[in-house]
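Below is a filled-in request sheet from our internal design queue. Each sheet records the structural input a requester submitted and the sequence that came back. We keep these sheets so that new team members can see what a complete request looks like end to end.

REQUESTER: design group, bay 2
PRIORITY: normal
MODE: inverse folding
CHAIN LENGTH: 378
BACKBONE (tokenized):
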């Protein structure tokens, strides 16, 4: 399955779906998309494969937990959750950006998190993709995507914003033109393997031959460039301006073409912080609005905040706590689509003692037409 597909969306369930919800969704889709039901339909066959992959991950509690925490990168071979968490705990970049561990398309595990640029070792990060000059060749490597997390509050996500992100990159060393070697350097016999390019390992009573890690199997070594310590590259942080469009949701992904490693892409994944009053459900917003007894009983016009600014909401007389009122078109704007805002009345009692109020409430008992707990039983 292609990366960046949300596994929950593939199955058509929410992130809070239970194991039973996942099973029902998978079985329903499997019946619709099975190749026996759709002979020769390549689209149905591709979707059938996607739902199988999604279900295999989400039905496994451990895999699902890692996917919820890290997203697609947790599905790649060699993913190390401990290193990923250590990376996320490092100081944040500008504008609230928190870099996630960049995993390349090949899925190779990266090295430790040490003292390199931005709190991790860029040499380790790029070590699988570049041949060091001192070990036989100029810089080269496949295009790799870099994934970063953007922590946004709900208001910012609804309105959209612009962020400046610092992306780790490598540039060919100007002193050695990427070779990793000193100018006019001569090849010397490798002292570790004595020119054979192989070394012997003794393990559990067995003798095994392996490629010499000093000369990378060439049998010779050259003096390393002092400017880049033989890497053939210098480490940089490239600043990229990214515009987050209005309506970004939790887990939304924005791809910036060509701003990753070696021409790969920069992928921004948004994480939306919980709001104390508002809750988002797709394009709709839900608000628990505090109101007084007077406003609910006698009716009132109250101010309600929306993504478009404050609007007036008419509370009908004798409204009950928990009643919901709808403000059409005042939800999330995303492209040409827009949702609604549902306002739930949250009646608040006075927060201090008042004898007159206590007497009035006592007298109000006469206004009930029947006992409020009538009919409640097991």
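RETURNED SEQUENCE:
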């Amino acid at each position: 399955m292609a990366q960046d597909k949300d596994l929950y969306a593939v199955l058509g369930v929410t992130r809070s779906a239970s194991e039973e919800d996942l099973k029902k969704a998978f079985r329903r889709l499997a019946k619709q998309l099975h190749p026996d039901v759709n002979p020769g339909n390549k689209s149905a066959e591709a979707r059938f494969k996607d739902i199988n992959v999604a279900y295999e991950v989400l039905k496994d509690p451990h895999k699902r937990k890692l996917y919820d925490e890290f997203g697609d990168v947790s599905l790649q071979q060699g993913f190390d959750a401990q290193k990923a968490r250590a990376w996320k705990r490092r100081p944040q970049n500008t504008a609230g950006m928190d870099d996630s561990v960049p995993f390349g398309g090949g899925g190779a595990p990266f090295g430790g998190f040490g003292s390199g640029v931005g709190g991790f070792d860029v040499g380790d990060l790029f070590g699988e993709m570049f041949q060091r000059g001192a070990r036989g060749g100029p810089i080269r490597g496949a295009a790799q995507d870099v994934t970063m997390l953007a922590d946004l509050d709900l208001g910012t996500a609804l309105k959209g914003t612009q962020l400046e992100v610092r992306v780790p990159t490598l540039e060919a060393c100007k002193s050695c033109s990427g070779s990793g070697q000193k100018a006019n350097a001569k090849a010397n016999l490798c002292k570790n393997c004595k020119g054979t390019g192989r070394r012997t390992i003794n393990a559990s009573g067995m003798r095994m031959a392996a490629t010499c890690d000093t000369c990378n199997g060439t049998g010779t070594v050259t003096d390393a460039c002092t400017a880049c310590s033989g890497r053939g590259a210098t480490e940089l942080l490239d600043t990229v301006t990214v515009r987050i469009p209005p309506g970004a949701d939790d887990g939304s992904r924005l791809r910036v073409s060509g701003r990753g490693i070696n021409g790969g892409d920069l992928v921004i994944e948004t994480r939306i912080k919980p709001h104390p009053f508002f809750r988002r459900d797709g394009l709709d917003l839900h608000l628990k609005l505090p109101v007084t007894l007077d406003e609910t009983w006698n009716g009132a016009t109250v101010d309600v905040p929306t993504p478009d600014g404050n609007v007036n909401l008419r509370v009908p007389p004798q409204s009950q706590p928990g009643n919901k009122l709808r403000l059409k078109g005042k939800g999330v704007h995303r492209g040409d689509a827009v949702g609604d805002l549902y306002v739930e009345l949250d009646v608040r009692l006075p927060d201090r003692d008042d004898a007159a109020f206590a007497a009035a409430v006592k007298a109000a008992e006469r206004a009930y037409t029947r006992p409020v707990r009538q009919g409640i039983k097991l």
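SHEET NOTES:
- The longest strand covers residues 161-172.
- Confidence is low (pLDDT under 50) at residues 90-140.
FILED BY: M.R.
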